[in-house]
Amino acid sequence: VQLQASGGGSVQAGGSLRLSCTGSGRIFSTYTMAWFRQAPGQEREFVGAITDTERWTGYADSVKGRFTISRDNGKNTVYLQMNSLKPEDTAVYYCAAAQHARNGLKDAAKFPYWGQGTEVTVSS
């Protein structure tokens, strides 16, 4: 599956952005999808994930209650709604996919397919 992320931009603290990630192929619905982010000079970190069946969503503690991940399989798209943004949310955000994945979803190595990244800048 090929992934294309979009929706990044610059926003002031407290603002909102919605990221989108669109996948190619007819079997997008069979992929567990995740968002990771990488700030300058830091390692890539898990943000959130949603399973292929949509029965489970999970988030990093740092974004819990502020970010929401969802998907529309009819549009082959996964979304990351980001509210109450903070300067520490500044990073390049990547979407990732792994077919039928269930466990270890906070580990980037679990995901073989990645989008190109979209940059989010939050100013104070």
What does this structure look like?
The chain is an all-beta fold. Helices cover 0% and strands 49% of the residues. The strands form two sheets. Strands 2, 4, 5, 6, 9, 10 and 11 form a seven-stranded mixed β-sheet that branches. A four-stranded antiparallel β-sheet has the order 1-3-8-7, with no helix packed on it. It is globular, with a radius of gyration of 13 Å.
Q: Secondary-structure element order, as H and E?
A: EEEEEEEEEEE
Shape: globular
| Helix-strand makeup class | mainly beta
Strand content: over 45%
**What is the mean predicted local confidence, pLDDT?**
95
Report the total helices: 0
Task: Give the N-to-C terminal Cα separation.
Answer: 37 Å
Which range best describes the helical content: under 10%, 10-25%, 25-40%, 40-55%, 55-70% or over 70%? under 10%
CA radius of gyration is 13 Å
Total strands: the figure is 11
Which structural traits does this protein have?
124 residues, 49% strand, 11 strands
Secondary structure layout plus pairing:
Layout (H helix, E strand, L loop, with lengths): L2 E4 L2 E4 L4 E7 L7 E8 L6 E6 L6 E3 L7 E6 L4 E6 L8 E9 L13 E2 L3 E6 L1
Parallel strand pairs: 2-11
Antiparallel strand pairs: 1-3, 3-8, 4-5, 4-9, 5-6, 7-8, 9-10, 9-11
Outline of the structure:
It is built from no helices and eleven strands.
